[in-house]
Amino acid sequence: MRPVGSDDGRPETYVPPRLIPYNLRSSLRRVTLSWAFGSLWMYITTGAALTRYAKLLHMPEYGFGLLAAVPFVSALAQLPASYVMEHYGGRKRLFLAAGLFHRSMWVLVAAIPWFIPEAWWWMSLLGLLAISSLAGHVATPGVYGWFADLVPRQVRGRYFSRRMQVGQLVGLAVTTLVGVVLDQAGVIGDVALRRTISAGLVVAALCGVADFAILATVPDPPGRAPDPSVHFWGMLGGPLRNPNFRRYLAYNATLTFGLGYVGQYVWLYAFDVVKLNNTVANLALVGAPLIVALICTPFWGRLIDRMGRRPILIIAGVLITPGAAVWILVTKDNLWWSYILILISVFAWPGVDLANFNLLLGLTASHSSDHHGSAYVAANSIVVAIAGALSGVFGAAVAGALKDWHGQFLWWPLTYHGLLFLISGGLRLAALLFVLRLEDRGAYATRKAIRDAVASLHSNLHHSLVVPVRRAAALRRTAYKLRGDDWDE
Predict the structure, then answer these.
(1) Most confident of the ranges 68-77, 83-92, 106-115
(2) Dihedral pair phi/psi, residue 5, rounded to 5°
(3) Calpha distance 300→291 (Å, rounded)
(4) What DSSP string describes 296-324?
(5) 117, 131, 111, 129: which is closest to 66 by C-alpha?
(6) Contacts of 421 (CB under 8 A, 6+ apart)
(7) Is 275 left (phi over 0), alpha (psi -120 to 50) or beta?
(8) How many Å apart are CA 97 and CA 250, to the nearest integer?
(9) What are the Cα distances from residue 292, in Å, to 42, 270, 276, 298, 406?
């Protein structure tokens, strides 16, 4: 078993369950339940619905790059939020107040076509989403420290993988339903489709508010006491003096720059180049990836708990490298065979997400060292915000300049979307150079982790394929025994 320690090399204090002044199991269940509602909000407000809504509000091609940049620019709000929490405390109160405002703003987003002049539609969408995203990022530093203190280090990988699975199940059902509803509304016309999406966004806002209402009942474990003497720049300087954290920032910045614009332009590629309808697009870009993630997320969670986070980042990071670039092979005449290659990258994404999330949790735990944990979240958010904003602007510049461009890559037709996807693949690979030097106390060596991961994957596949057959055979033998020798007498 891996030794338990903090990410700055100091031992992590373990609090025995009998000393925890609240019901830990009940608290973790409520955190999972809240995410079921949070997933409803997330999967309604993303994917085909948001892209179609933006197009119906007359957003230009370059506007989608700006739309991709909005969440990253808004993340700069995490630094002052972190300072307020470290100076005054009250992370749960700040998290709930900002989060409720963040989710409620989607009611106003839904009301854009009803109360705002048409000439201002798409600009109003950008503005309201920016305000909502700003409030969401104000809440972010608090939830990292809160969950880091709430969930014991020994089970974080498994717990958050199970929590993620709940969201994936909800997302799969919602994605399928949203796609079908949008296609039915689209048959009637653009006005009906726009009204349908508006109604869906109101439902999403209510689900998002329910998410935070449930979290309000979860206890906030006693963490580090507020420090009135903390200085704004001094708080930020602490994390930046940590060389291991600087390598982590470099990894996140490079990866984010390669990912920031992809989310918006892959939807445009699916609609405008591959000509998918809403249902098929939602299934291809959200539904099928959710099914794959639902199956493999526990696999990655167990590997992280057993082997550490660094080797999993490397293994999964290699597998996600071709994920965007393979989209250039997907066309109207070559859809599903090419799409299978994309699912390889989809299989690895939960590993990247869980390992990254657990690394940051280790840095923010209040009892892990004498640093201000939320400052690590804020510093990371600033770097990611800058990289994501630059990524969105870069995508917007390429889309605006090469909107009607057509070229070739190895004799394969290429649009500006494909060019952006190829660049994304190169940046994902470059990000791994920083992971190679990342320290993760107690983690397996990468080669040993690869061998064990392959063995674990083989064992899981063998169990999934062979055990049902064996059980069927055992059931047949049992049925034969129940018949008895004198069945025909």
Answers:
(1) 106-115
(2) -155, 165
(3) 15
(4) HHHHHHHHHHHH-SHHHHHHHHHHHTTTT
(5) 129
(6) 262, 265, 266, 269, 324, 325, 327, 328
(7) left
(8) 32
(9) 18, 20, 21, 11, 33
Compute the CA torsion angle 48, 205, 64, 292 (nearest 10 deg). Answer: -40
Cα separation of 321 and 347, whole Å?
12
Between 62 and 445, whose confidence is greater?
Answer: 62
Q: What are phi and psi of 330, to 5 degrees?
A: -85, 115
339 Rama class: left (phi>0) / alpha (psi -120 to 50) / beta: alpha
pLDDT in tens, 367-409: 444 455 567 777 887 888 899 889 989 998 998 888 888 887 7
- SS3 of 284, please? helix
* Chain-centre distance for alpha carbon 246: 22
Which residues, at least 6 apart from 295, have a Cβ–Cβ distance to it below 8 Å?
Answer: none
**Of all residues in the chain, what percent carry a pLDDT higher than 70?**
79
Which residues contact residue 325 at a Cβ distance below 8 angstroms, ignoring those fewer than 6 apart?
A: 421, 422, 424, 425
Write out the two tokens for 1: 């078993």
CA distance 206 to 137: 19
Closest-CA residue to 350 (of 164, 138, 100)? 164
- Contact, 174 vs 44, CB < 8 A? yes
Residue 208 phi, psi dihedral angles, 5° rounding: -65, -40
Name the CA dihedral angle for 185, 190, 191, 192, rounded to a multiple of 10 degrees. 0
CA gap 434, 254 in Å, rounded: 9
Q: Which residue has the tokens 């007498």?
A: 489
Q: How far apart are CA 322 and CA 318, in angstroms?
A: 8
Give the model's confidence band at 446: pLDDT under 50 very low, under 70 low, under 90 confident, else very high.
low
Residue 407, strand partner residues:
414
Please report where in the chains the tokens 């199956």 appear, as a residue.
Answer: 295
Tokens of 386: 């800058």
Q: Within a 13 Å sphere around the CA of 282, how many CA atoms are in the beta-carbon half?
A: 26
| Count of alpha carbons within 13 angstroms of residue 125, beta-carbon side | 26
**Using the 8-state DSSP alphabet, how is residue 155 labeled?**
G
Q: Residue 105: what pLDDT?
A: 93
366 pLDDT above the threshold of 60: no
